[in-house]
Amino acid sequence: xxxxxxxxxxxxxxxxxxxxxxxxxxxxxxxxxxxxxxxxxxxxxxxxxxxxxxxxxxxxxxxxxxxxxxxxxxxxxxxxxxxxxxxxxxxxxxxxxxxxxxxxxxxxxxxxxxxxxxxxxxxxxxxxxxxxxxxxxxxxxxxxxxxxxxxxxxxxxxxxxxxxxxxxxxxxxxxxxxxxxxxxxxxxxxxxxxxxxxxxxxxxxxxxxxxxxxxxxxxxxxxxxxxxxxxxxxxxxxxxxxxxxxxxxxxxxxxxxxxxxxxxxxxxxxxxxxxxxxxxxxxxxxxxxxxxxxxxxxxxxxxxxxxxxxxxxxxxxxxxx
Length: 321
Fold this sequence. Notes:
By secondary structure, the protein is of the alpha/beta class.
């Protein structure tokens, strides 16, 4: 049995495939550098191993042989009580447009449920992220005007089957019942949906096509999310975050009830930020074997956790939030 099987065959044939191949080959090289037996699998065939590495996730819909293979890999690892490591996109993609940092986890892609080997981290990774993108943790803002509602891809894996349009109408109705502040709706840049039912409603507008997340956050009083990683940008900017789902990466520093929209909590963010940054790794971390080394005790000692299939996820290397 191999220590690690890296499934190149789990990749789709799309424009940024070469970048995805680089990511997987880097991990394979790093695992070998740490003494692991490694197979780079190019066939649509499952191979016994302790750790199976795939890029992205799977769900209830099968869209091509690479997705079927991912599902087969996950099912096999679960059945044999071994582990799967999905590689997922950066939570800083509002500035990290080339995916310099990526997330690695064990047995799932939900930040507050699966294993990221990042609890109680120091500030070293935050310093790396901060220096790379010139980011600052701004003080909580106690002034502002509009409430930003950020939408997600309808059918994206993080939505867990939630109807995004229904969530939007329900959330906007709830906000309007609690405050007279104007509402700015930010559709997902890659998934514009029909919100004609809100056209002409006083105090509601949509962000302009092509506007950046940072622009829509300017002068915001609060930002509301289902569980989008765009919540990280708001939290860093000091804008109070409201999250609807406990798998939101900003859940620990977010408000959980819109009832508090006019008096939001503003918790300490430092440890949350250190831990979040420590879930992110570079290709150099991968090639050196640092990622494999960090997770190895967990791979060896921990039984695989239950895995739930959701909707398909793809790592979009250059996708903006």
